[in-house]
Amino acid sequence: MNRNLRKRLLGLLSAFTFCALITSAANGQFPVFPDELRLFQGQGKQLRLSLPVQAKVSVDRPDVVMVNGQATPTMTVSLGEPLNLSPVSSGEAKLRMKLFGQIPLKTVKVNVIPDLKVIPGGQTIGVKVKSAGILVVGHHQVTNEGQKVSPGESAGIQIGDLITHMNGIELKDVKDVSDIAARAGQGKKPLKLTYKRGGQTFTTSLSPAFDKSDGAWRLGLYIRDSAAGVGTLTFYAPDQGVYGALGHVITDMNTQTPIVVGSGQILQSSVTSISKSESGEPGEKRAHFIKEGKTLGNIERNTPFGIFGKMEQNPEHSVYNEGIPVAFAEEVKEGPAEILTVVEGQRVERFKIEIVHVSRQNAPETKGLVIRITDPRLVEKTGGIVQGMSGSPIIQNGKLIGAVTHVFVNDPRSGYGCFIEWMLQDAGILKGNSNQLSQNLKAS
């Protein structure tokens, strides 16, 4: 066969293949082939192109990923059959595909990540957290020499500021403030305050005012150093000894600013009753901390995706006693799934839901999923999603994929969820790329 004839035949085959690709795509049969693929070690993946042609597939690192069970760098495959990718070891490999051995079709970067399994939670937990300083939640006026003043407001302190030091003394408890203020007032010396606002640190001087009504020196500030509530445990990672819960940040109820954690703990809790959700009025779980119940873990971080810390063992009442696989964001599909949560006492139960929308996220964002409660038992008991249910793990096809985060106020059967991938990153278990991590830190 002469060279010109060979080129013509190759051109005809290319045109035929191109038409086949367009036709398949128009019929919705040709999947969007990714530029990058992430796989957990030990979890295989099938790629389906459904094209009646052969292609040459080459892998630069067959020690990282094998194609169709073969540890060879190059092979010829039929694209009418699925390509089976088998991760061998953690690392990065490039998979190149050429039609008829000559026409470049696609290059895919395959990222193999060490195997990861976590135990889904669902338990109702009590949360106690102390801020890393004293949070300003309001101003108040002090009557001093016939005038009403707020020393704190005059010093430029704003609601939402976090006071970390007074006269160089680190503030760990709100009870310390009155003694320091009294010493400064009696000595007629202004206090030097160090405070944080918007991620930046500032200093100012504040002169306490004497309140004759109760004989005390006042700052003219309403302050708080702790918060408490209930939520739901999302996962426990036994190999790392860490947990994640809530699926959203804890904010101060007055200022709506995120609480910077100084210390904290999660505790055993039991649901006593439920106020059902109705359109326009979200319900809530009513629960109490179990008297003499043990501390389950500490709280080290409070991020847009929940609270995270150390935990020594899997808590009681788990549906799962061993870890299950987790899913990357791109694996999550619209369709049926289930959540784990408590509606009475401490018993964790499974309830059916529908994932009605999946957002395609390349970086951490809180609203990744729209879910709808479809389980009639849960709807009857709660009316849908209620406060205290945030953090309930979402499971699809045997994998932990996310957590419940918020309810739609006007449609309490529906709400948002976040991808488990972002929670695992904030827990320090799963590494994100530098772009993802930088965006997540900005969100914090």
Mean pLDDT, nearest integer?
Answer: 87
Q: Which sheet architecture does the biggest sheet show? A: 14 strands, antiparallel
- What assembly state would you assign to the polypeptide chains in this entry? single chain
Percent range for helical residues?
10-25%
How does this structure look, described?
The protein is mainly beta and 444 residues long. Helices cover 14% and strands 46% of the residues. The chain has 6 helices and 32 strands. The strands form 6 sheets. Strands 9, 10, 13, 14, 15, 16, 19, 20, 21, 22, 23, 24, 25 and 26 form a 14-stranded antiparallel beta sheet that branches. The chain has a 6-stranded antiparallel beta barrel with strand order 27-28-29-32-31-30. The N and C termini lie far apart (66 Å). Residues 22-31 and 433-444 have low confidence and may be disordered. Keywords: Hydrolase, Protease, Serine protease, Signal. This is Stage IV sporulation protein B.
Write the layout of secondary structure elements.
Layout lengths: L2 H24 L9 E5 L4 E3 L6 E6 L5 E3 L6 E5 L4 E5 L3 E9 L3 E11 L3 E4 L3 E16 L2 E3 L2 E3 L1 H4 L7 E5 L2 E2 L4 H12 L4 E7 L2 E7 L2 E3 L4 E3 L2 E17 L4 E5 L14 E15 L8 E6 L5 E4 L2 E3 L2 E5 L13 E2 L9 E8 L5 E11 L10 E5 L2 H7 L10 E4 L2 E10 L2 E9 H7 L7 H10 L1
Parallel strand pairs: 1-8
Antiparallel strand pairs: 2-6, 3-5, 3-7, 4-6, 7-8, 9-19, 9-26, 10-13, 10-19, 10-21, 11-12, 13-14, 13-15, 15-16, 17-18, 19-20, 20-25, 21-22, 21-23, 24-25, 27-28, 27-30, 28-29, 29-32, 30-31, 31-32
Protein name: Stage IV sporulation protein B
GO molecular function: serine-type peptidase activity
Enzyme class: hydrolase
